[in-house]
């Protein structure tokens, strides 16, 4: 037998042994069902990530870990879901970074305005040493951080007027996430920043009690915000991660082999969602225009950056050495 055939045969044998070993790891495992919740609809990137995660976990555990999906805030808003994970009444979720930062405040460092120049820059930091360190630190608040999915670069919409510079925001009532960095960012821009849960924001926009909101293109599209919001600005003012996160009570009950599959599947599902979001954005913007939304594509970003400089002065020290480390990594 020549060397090539011998090495090919050896590789085939080793792959077969690895597959058998993985199957054997789950042969004696008692079946478990994990409920994965999120607050958005089935067209959203969160659900795309969740479905990919479900597929990977069920396949790789030979069906011993069954994932049940609960979209549309059916188990509660994001704070409620995280509190449920801490005490073991909710198993896991895909959760926007902002609410997670209410449990571990350093998480909010990622959402400082205009921090990341591109999605690729954000991924390098999140998937690298800094991001993984913060995922691990969630154990301090009884949560298990698995991977960074994506909410994406956030953009401003409103029902009143085109926004090309900070002066155009003055006095607008803008819904923001319940997170102090967002509140203070929009106050520095002159808005009346109104923190509220997303489920309440949808009603508030319909009733006209707020003028606008800020979210990535995929959210603006999937929730048909053109029905209440005539104007959109591609401000890309903040990159918002999202997290695959689990409660430590549930995580600690899983065998090591299942934990390993879940962590790897979360990372792969997160990367899958990022690719889908990138592919879909141009098409979504075209459909929003067709639906009548007026889109400002090139606002005065330098003016926005200057206006939010006080946010860095206010929060820089609060995040310890994370901000300078991120800035160094981005150079």
Describe the 3D structure.
One of its GO terms (biological process) is transmembrane transport. One of its GO terms (cellular component) is outer membrane-bounded periplasmic space. This protein is α/β, with parallel strands linked by helices and 331 residues long. It has a single domain, classed as 3-Layer(aba) Sandwich (D-Maltodextrin-Binding Protein, domain 2), CATH 3.40.190. It is built from 14 helices and 9 strands. Strands 1, 2, 3, 4, 5, 6, 7, 8 and 9 form a 9-stranded mixed beta sheet that branches. Strand 1, helix 2 and strand 2 form a beta-alpha-beta unit. Helix 2 packs antiparallel against helix 11. The longest helix has 35 residues. The termini are far apart. About 2% of the residues have low confidence.
What features would you highlight for this structure?
single chain; 331 residues; alpha/beta; D-Maltodextrin-Binding Protein, domain 2; 9-stranded mixed beta sheet; 14 helices; globular; receptor; signal; TRAP_DctP; TRAP_DctP_sf
